[in-house]
């Protein structure tokens, strides 16, 4: 939900909605002691992903990660004073950091990956 990808526009939109909803809830609940975080994993190796009739191009940019890695990241983030946006792997953290500073660079990287994939 932090960046849309070609080939999965509808899916990307639904994930953007989750991130926006979490942001709004975090603000609405800020004085209640309730913390709101959002988990933003990259493609995950799940039966749903494996059963897709056609693999979206974004899934070929890097291998899908294991669900166990997502679960570990989630537990670590909620077991303390974790970030509001939970990024699971180093690749996602770098992409998110670069996208905030140099969005055009990330756009071009994604377009190149889609053309070569």
Describe the 3D structure:
The chain is mainly α. It has helices at residues 9-28, 47-50, 67-78, 90-101, 103-116, and strands at residues 38-40, 85-87. Helix 4 packs across helix 5 (103-116). The longest helix has 20 residues, at 9-28. The protein is globular. 5% of the residues are buried.
Question: Would you spell out the secondary-structure blueprint of this structure?
Answer:
Layout: H1 9-28, E1 38-40, H2 47-50, H3 67-78, E2 85-87, H4 90-101, H5 103-116
Parallel strand pairs: 1-2
Low-pLDDT residue spans: none
Order of strands, main sheet, comes to 1-2
Structural class: mainly alpha
Let me know the number of strands: 2
User: What pattern of helices and strands is seen along the backbone?
Assistant: HEHHEHH
Structure summarized in a few sentences:
The chain has 117 residues and is mainly alpha-helical.
Which descriptors would you attach to this protein?
mainly alpha, two-stranded parallel ribbon, 5 helices, globular, 117 residues
């Amino acid at each position: 939900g932090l960046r849309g990808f070609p080939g999965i526009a509808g899916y990307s939109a639904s994930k953007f909605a989750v991130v926006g909803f979490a942001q709004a809830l975090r603000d609405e609940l800020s004085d209640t002691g309730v913390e709101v975080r959002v988990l933003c994993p990259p493609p995950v190796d799940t039966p749903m992903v494996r059963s897709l009739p056609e693999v979206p191009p974004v899934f070929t940019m890097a291998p899908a990660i294991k669900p166990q890695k997502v679960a570990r990241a989630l537990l670590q983030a909620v077991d303390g004073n974790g970030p509001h946006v939970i990024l699971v792997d180093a690749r996602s953290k770098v992409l998110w950091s670069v996208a905030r500073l140099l969005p055009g660079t990330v756009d071009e990287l994604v377009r190149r990956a889609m053309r070569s994939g």
